[in-house]
Amino acid sequence: MIPAPIKYKFITPGVIFLILIALNGLVFLAIRFISGIGAVTNLDNATPWGLWIGVDVAAGVALAAGGFTSAALGHIMHREEYHSIVRPALLTAMLGYTFVAFAVFVDIGRFYFIWHPLIMWNGNSALFEVGICVMIYVTVLYIEFFPMVTEKFIGRVNFPQFLDFLNKPVDMILRYLDSRLSATMFIFIIAGVVLSTLHQSSLGTLMVIAGQKMHPLWQTPILPLLFLLSAISVGFPMVIFESLIASRSFKLKPEMKILSRLGRMIGPILGVYLAFKIGDIFIRETFKYIVIFDTAAWMFIVEMALMMIAFALFLSRKVTRSPLGLFIASSFVIAGVLINRMNNFIIAYNPFYNPVKYFPSFGEISVTIGCIALLVLVYRAIVMYFPVISQEKREIIRKI
Amino acid sequence: MKNLNRRDFFKSAALGVSLTVLGTSKAKGSDKMLSDDRLGILVDTDVCVGCRHCEWACRVAHNLPTPDLDNYSDNSVFKEYRRPDAGSLTVVNKFENEKNPLLPIHVKVQCMHCERPACVSACIVGALTKGDDGSVVWDDDKCIGCRYCMVACPFQIPTYDYDRSIDPHIRKCDLCTDRRKNDELPACVNICPNEALLFGKRDAVLAVAKTRVKRKSDVYVNHIYGEHEVGGTSWMYIARKSFDKLNMPHLAANPAPGISESIQHGIFAYFVPPVTLYALLGTIMWITKRRSGDDDELISDEEEKGKGGKL
Ligand code: SF4
Ligand code: SF4
Ligand code: SF4
Which of A181, A212, A393, B51 is 20 to 30 Å from B150 at the Cα level? Predict the structure, then answer.
């Protein structure tokens, strides 16, 4: 198994569909930048944060956790057998965080001041910590991805004729960077894991300051811990999910040996998360809000049910051995975490004066879905150009 | 075995360090000492007649589009409960007075200028600051428009220009900082024909509020709103009716940012926890690398190693 670019046709009916969705999102994005946030979103003074923060930013960061969990497993714990998942996970994290950064750029009112936190600091602010950590982490992710670029180009730098005098020097620079990087890469790998632990949990601290504006089912001082644990829980399911989709869409053999092993680790991790989550409900005695069966309660039940079903599924050997079983179980975790983040940032936020209940507008949804479509397209383009996904030797030969 | 011990040692060392740090670090941000001379304003809702001149004066003082003062005698606006918005930093609402229907209760709403402001604690770039005089003001040159202050404020005060793409503002009462620099009273206090707004040092204002509540205990409920709410606020209210029924949020006495800041400082205390984590991960990496006898570079996995299989 070696990582290599995937040879496959880029345009398929699915891809055309994604392009259309992305274009639709771009239209609304244009309106947002011309006429302001109010022209596209349903946000108001009572509900200042909506879908873009809850899903694009918060869920985006959580679902990109595959990058640091697999780096921790593959590189820090040195489990060689998992190396083949590190690259795709890294790419997802890199694209995911780029998407998050873009979403922040879209959502903040004064997008042209997005660099302010770099020089204007407020150490008391959870948002400041999230912002700074994410900025550094994106940089680290790009550095971690760089070896795939050098691998692609070293010995193959080939500028068009009138620039071909650059071929040699660029090749030398790449070789130099590559050797420096492989000597120092461990610094970035560890930094990536530390930064992730920090901002994944700070993302939970974010809503603590909203105090009683937040529904008691979610408002708890251990929010940072819950956010960290759920991010760790969703890391591997996300890796499995993508790997299975990629092998299906590129007609490769799924790497079941590795994926089932990964799958078997998820159960216990989910167990720890659920233990804290359920413990929290009982310690703060918030179960009484569940039996009210209002929207919030139902959303809480859905969130918990998804995670508990996923937990049960991952404990079964039969599930972790079959691609379909793994795919379904992983989807449950992903949906559970996605809904958890939406619950925390949207459903739970209920200030005392809130005349118009927030529901995302068509424009907001279009932008969110459009960005996700774009993300998938870029992912597809990159794995077809750079050596990211590991394949059997004969698969590569067959495709070339 | 040796390795394991070493790892365990590092683990417990790290845990110990982070626990001590968590335990000792206090919320520094909102514990800032407050000046004894800080300002306070008392809204005596029993004196307010709902003329809304304060709304008008506030708009004029802040160069917001302002209708003619004559329009303000129109009482139909009271039909709906209103909140401050991008066009007005303060609004007055009317509430029924069951004991005497002819004397409704009017309540002015604006930023409370909290003593321990959540918005200041939350703002990502420190665009909101609390001055020595007690006022909480917003800095146009810093704000990035993230609206986290709106999420944080327990009174739901800051408002945002949703229909502007360039230069949207966060707006809220600034305690008329500019006017006070010229030794003028805040515009709303200045114009109030009934002296429903009492402006001065917070201690003095609070003392007056206490006397009024005590002297007319048959009129006022025994509660000075803002004396203790979220650690105290600069604006305070007295009224005939429970504040819950006047759409004032029911808030506890602990400062709003408190626990969030403790968590924040716990995670980040002097960078000890992150650095410890870094060292811990580095050690694990080193140990496991030696154990697996892998001296290859970390990232590139060119050849099939044919290892694996051990779990
Ligand atoms: S009322 Fe809200 S905006 Fe005003 S100081 Fe307090 S927290 Fe800040
Ligand atoms: S919107 Fe502006 S003032 Fe409010 S928290 Fe964000 S940067 Fe600070
Ligand atoms: S103090 Fe100034 S800014 Fe605040 S409500 Fe009164 S007039 Fe408006």
Answer: B51
